[in-house]
Each structure stands twice: as C-alpha cells, then as structure tokens.
Design goal:
The structure is a homodimer of 388-residue chains.
Chain A: H1 5-17, E1 22-25, H2 28-35, E2 45-49, E3 54-59, H3 63-69, E4 73-77, H4 88-102, E5 109-112, E6 117-120, E7 125-128, H5 132-140, E8 145-148, H6 150-158, H7 162-180, H8 182-185, H9 192-204, E9 215-223, H10 225-228, E10 247-256, E11 259-260, E12 263-268, H11 274-293, H12 300-313, E13 354-357, E14 360-363, E15 367-370, E16 373-377, E17 382-384
Parallel strand pairs in A: 1-5, 3-4, 5-8
Antiparallel strand pairs in A: 1-2, 2-3, 9-10, 10-11, 10-12, 13-16, 14-15, 16-17
C-alpha cells in the first residue's frame, strides 16, 4: 500500500522546520506513523530522511505484514538463527549501521524517541530497544547528533489525515459489534468476567474485521461499587456477580492495524432508580454540551468546561473526577495524548484531531456511570465516530 | 501479602556479589520480580536496597493492587491532577529523588534496566520511562553511578521459587479452560477469528480465575496454510474459514498476576490423513524424548537435540525450524529468556527453571503442527505444568 501522502508531507514539513536530517524510530506506534506499517513484536526500525525517503528494517517474519501496509523501502533482517543465538540488539546492529552508511546519515542530526513514552499492546509481548539503538549509532558514528523528538511526535500524532480518519471509522464500527452484545450479555447472576468474555468474543468474531490485517481489543466489565473505581487510569474486570439495581460499565479499547478506540457504555440492571436516571440525564446533557462546543480554533479546556458546568449544574461536579478526554487514535488511552480535554489544557482544537469525550459520575462505594465516545474535529464542528 | 523470602534472598545475594547498593526498576515484570506486585500501567518504580529494604513508588490508583500483592513499603504518588497537567515523567521526579535521599542513595552504585528488553502486555496500553529515570537520578545526584543490569535480571528470572512455581501451576490450570473448548470450538465453516474468540471467551469466563487479581490472555487460531506461518516469532489469527482436512493450531499466551504461559495444541478437522498421523506421532515422540532428557545439570542444547534427533529420524528435520524452547514465566514468549533450549545454547538446566517444549513441523503452503507445553525442572527430572 502506498504511503499516506498527507502524513508524509506533514512529517517532512516538521523535519525541515526542526532542521532534522532523519527520524529513527522503533516504537510500533511511531513506525506506524512514519511508514503505515504497524510492527508486531517491536524490533522494526523506521528511518525517514529529509529527502522524504522512508526505510524500514523489518524482521523477516514481519515482512509480509509490512509489504501489505507500506510502500517504504524494506530491508529484512533475521531476528534469530537456528544455529546461532542472537538478541534483537545484536541482530539490528549491522543492518542499522549499513543502512545509515548507505543513505549517508553518518554525520547527521537525527531525531529519536527518548523520553517517557506510552505504547498500546501490539502483541502479547513486545520488545523495546530502550537506549540500545542510540548506543549503536553513537558507537558507529561519533559525529552523529541525536535529539529527543518525543514532543514533536506527540504533536504530529494529534491530527489525523483523511486516510487515517477512515481507518479509525472502520475500527469504531468493528468495536460496535462488541457493544451490540450488551443487551444479551448483561444479566443478573453473571460475573463481570463472564460478561467481559462474552463481549470480547462478539468483538473478535465480527466479519467486519476482514478489512484489517490485525484487529483485536480489550473488553472490561465493572459493576456496582467496582464501577466507581473506573475513575482510575485503568479498567479492571473482577469476579463480582452482577445484581439487579447495579450500574454495569463496559469499557473497551479496540484496535485495527494500529488505530485505537476508547469506548465506554453503562447499563443499569433492571429498572433504573431515580438516582440512576438523574445521573444518565446529566451525563447525556453534558455530552451534548461538549459536542456542541467542538470546532477548530476552540480551546480544549472550553470543551471540558462545557461538559463540567452541566454536571455541576445537576449537582454532580465533585463526582466528575477526571478530565473530559484526551487524544485517541495512535493509542487507546494516553492522558497526555493531544489534545488534552482537561481544565488545565493549553491545547487548541484543529481539524482532524481525534479524542474521546467521557463525561462521568463516580460515587465511591455505590457505583459509576460513564459514556465515552471517540470524536473527530471537522471543518465546521464534530463527527462522532462511535455512533451506537 | 509478604514478599517471597526465597526470591528476596536470591536478589540480595546477587546484589552483594555485584557490589550494587540498590536496584531501581520500572518495567512491570521487573517490579514484579523485586516486589511481588505487577504494575498495570507501568509508571511504578521499585527500589531494592542492599540492606534488603524494598520500596515501591506507586501511582495512587494502583495502591490497592500493590498492597494486596506485596509487603514492600509503598509511597503513593499522583499520576495526574484534575487542575494541573502532569506527565508520568514530571510526576515521578519529586517522589523518586525524595525517596533516594531518604534511603541514602545519593552517591550509590545503582543497577537499572538499560538495554533492549521485552515486556508482556500488562494492559491495553503501557507506559515506559525509557531513559527518563536515569536522567532524573543523574540530574539530582551527580555522584550516583548507574550500571546496566539487564543480563543479571534475565538470570534472576530464569529459576522460579516455590511460591512462583505454584502461581505458574494455577495460571496453567486456568489456561486449560480455554483449550477445553477446542472440541466444541473447531468446526468446518468457522473462521479462525470465530474459533479464537470462542476459546478466548471460555478462558476469560473461568471461575478458577477467582484466585487472581488479574487474569487474562491472548488466544490465536491458525488453520491450513496459515498454520505453517506459526514458525514466526508471533502468532496471528486471520479470517480464513476452516475446512475438512485442515490442521488447526491454537496458540495461547495467558497470564495470572504477571506469570505467563505459552501453550499450543493442534487438531485436525475430520479424520487425520496418513501424513498428519505421521506428523503427530513424530511430534509426540520428540516431546517425550525431550521430557526424558530434562534434569538439573543437563545442557539445554541436549534437550533440543533429544527432540530434534527424533524429528530428523522421522524425516521431519528440515521442517522443525526453530529452537525447542525458551524461558517462560515472567514473559510469555521471550526467545532470549533463560534457559534457551536451542542448538547453540550455552545454558545449563537448574532446579526451578521453567520453559516451554515446543516440537513442531511446518510445511510451507500446507500447514504446521506444534505441541507446546510449559515445564519446570525438578530435583530429579521434570514437571509438566500444562497437563491437558
């Protein structure tokens, strides 16, 4: 598949502005950003030069995946041999220094990932070079200059191209198949793990996923008092049995070929109580107020304010314990993903930015309700990608 | 829960031998090794001193999980605030330098993870400090000396304690519930993703998992020609429909509270052909030969040889394309995990080592068959943890 021309020119513009000769990245999400190919294990290295050439050093057993998703120049390397023991670090050293010599990066200014980072799970287990790549380059080419480009990469990832947005739409559509099973899946007497497993199965089995090379996700179920703990930075399914009267929160992070969603829906088991009805009305009104406020040029903190003031009006201000959202797309949940829809955010909305909108009310010991959508900023307003 | 005394004294012995004043680790698996607590997001930092004190800086919303699994001294920090934007890197700087000052590590020799590493998925998305922790420490304490201890950690993880082995047994027992569903799950006309989803659901729903704080896994299904690609470093479920006569391979990596399994079983759809019967007989004979060869003091490469020579005798030598196994436990699949059961391995088996035994035959375009167990070295021989 050809490299996304819009993404390619944005990266090139950033490199010229920052006077970088090349970007050398190995985190799966960053390789995806630079090349269109989402590595599985995490040993691939992408090099993007100021001439706009895109190279990938790819372990030979990921070559087919890389070829189908990127027109970058691929150089396969062998991550291991049957009759010699190698580590990813020793396996990459020769191919990396050869490629850098071949494309004249021996005295270049190179941007690399360096600071704290966040990666979605691209497989059950993933490799990371940590500082090994920089060590190899510095050892081989003493004149090379290495700069940390973490913030620049974060900015590049914020706004999606037309092609990337379309991939996120398909990913959201596939995720909906998991949530479609909620009516059947949530029943009193079932344990949270049983409900999560059933929804997960429905997601995994959707034939919509045929459009993807890799489609998978994580479904979490939190019920009753456990749903109140969903205000944390992570979700957790437990073995609690769901009872009549409970709030039951389903949270999912699903992905298609490296593009992620972050979705939550909450149901009541049996007829909702008056309190639950008031919570839902406040959340849906807050959601609508946030959506109405979204358009290019708006301050992200105003979007948070729009939702938060509705929840405050309904008396639920103290129970809305986190920011309204954060960038979503290249990672499922990254509270530092741009734009940060947060009371203290300095970010300003731009066309193509994708983020979640997650108004919520958490009562400790009682339960939590959250409704989390993924949205994109359009020329004139907002598109909700999770229309279900 | 108290810290595993056997693990604690092994770590201490290694530190004294290496003349280290402290270990400072943040990868979830290494925090588990040092403390018994398996972090979710990856922002926790464990410090193990030469006096045997164990400290953890834990994000406040993981405090409950840490308390239930470790008696380390916990210091909670806030990973984010509602009215201030912080990054994990800025959030950890003050608590980390305070703690190091408090326990007198300001001019210490410290071991840290530095080189290429491998982590199992502890959540849908995980954070990594990359070089940030070392940068913070060097900035705050110019007299500190930082050493890479990656190889030492790899060695420590190879042999499991009595308590860790028991956790691996339970994890393997839970994994069996996914495989129990194979008979019902594999039917002609179903797509690989449908089969994998069904097995995944059965695994997620087992009530055996009540013994764990977190239990989850990844199930993969590869059928027909796709099963031949399972010789790669990763498994991949596709949308292919399973047909009569196919080999259908189910691969799973499952975990309980940070301890992982690596399991494969292969079925034939309908009556096995003569070729398939010959393949299975050779694989089961190779497996038995490998198991018979395992005991403390044996060279790991002899175990590979035991299985490989059986497959060669049956004419399947060229089709067995990888080493017989690798360390399993703290990660699901780490071809560099000790002991490496590989033709070129320098490793020698020790009591408590856990690894997989995965004889396999792959015919390109036709299909692959693999049988992968997790085993432990006992005083007198071997224990198969995946007895199903």
């Amino acid at each position: 598949m050809a490299i996304d021309p819009e993404r390619h020119s944005r990266i090139l513009a950033m490199m010229r502005e920052e006077k970088l000769d090349a970007l050398v990245c190995s985190s799966p999400t960053e390789v995806l950003l630079l090349t269109g190919y989402w590595p599985v294990i995490g040993t691939s290295v992408a090099i993007f030069t100021r001439e706009g050439e895109v190279h990938v050093l790819v372990p030979s057993d990921e070559r087919e995946i890389a070829e189908k998703s990127s027109s970058a120049v691929l150089t396969a390397f062998s991550p291991g041999e049957l009759y010699a023991l190698t580590t990813p670090q020793t396996a990459i050293a020769e191919p990396l220094t050869s490629l850098c010599t071949q494309i004249s990066l021996t005295a270049a200014t190179i941007g690399m990932e360096r600071e704290q980072g966040l990666q979605p799970a691209s497989y059950a287990v993933t490799a990371s070079y940590r500082s090994a790549l920089a060590d190899i380059l510095r050892g081989a080419f003493p004149q090379i200059e290495i700069r940390a480009v973490d913030t620049l990469l974060e900015r590049l990832k914020a706004s999606k191209t037309v092609i990337e947005l379309e991939k996120m739409r398909v990913t959201a559509m596939i995720a909906s198949t998991g949530f479609d099973a909620m009516t059947e899946g949530i029943r009193p007497g079932l344990r949270e793990a049983e409900i999560a497993g059933f929804l997960q199965m429905n997601f995994e089995r959707t034939s919509l996923a045929r459009q993807m090379q890799r489609s998978y996700g994580f479904f979490y179920c939190m019920s009753g008092p456990n749903s109140a703990t969903a205000a944390a930075a992570y979700a957790r399914t437990r073995q609690r049995e769901v009872c009549i009267g409970d709030l039951v929160m389903i949270h999912a992070n699903t992905c298609g070929d490296g593009y992620w969603t972050d979705i939550t829906r909450t149901r009541t088991v049996g007829e909702p109580s008056e309190k639950q009805t008031r919570m839902r009305e406040a959340i849906m009104e807050a959601r609508q107020a946030a959506l109405d406020s979204i358009r290019p040029g708006v301050h992200a903190q105003q979007v948070d304010r729009a939702a938060r003031s509705v929840l405050e009006k309904h008396g639920f201000g103290p129970q809305f314990k986190h920011g309204l959202g954060h960038g979503v797309g290249f990672a499922a949940a990254n509270t530092n993903g741009r734009p940060r829809i947060h009371p203290a955010s300095p970010d300003i909305l731009e066309v193509g930015m994708t983020f979640n909108v997650e108004p919520a009310i958490y009562f400790d010991e009682y339960g939590g309700m959250r409704h989390c959508d993924v949205v994109a900023v359009t020329n004139s307003g907002v598109e909700v990608l999770t229309q279900f």
